[in-house]
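Model it.
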Amino acid sequence: MERLAALVPHPHCNLVVYHGVLAPRHRWRSHVVPPREEESGEEVAEPARRPRRSVWIPWSVLIFRTFGVSPLSCPWCQTTMGVRAIVRSWETSKKLLAVLGRPWQPDLLVPRPAPARWEEDTDFW
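Modeled.
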């Protein structure tokens, strides 16, 4: 769940970012991108729009649909759990662990990568 949560983008951030000639303020963009229909001078009939139905689905329901596991039920006692805090900084983690009565040890929170190993008997060519 931790790895999946890291992949979810923050709300209201652009998911597609253009670089180079396709960037929004590039001076050659008008030579590459065709003009919009409003700018071309031709009158185009606007297609009939359907009313957009915005249905909000809670994240817990989406997780249950995807993985078949309820994220709000405790795996040991099956009672309902809730979100206590969203940890985004070291200071927040210190405060949260202090409230829970746990020691704050940064070595336990951030795993250290294993050192690189070289195998002598490996033939690459």
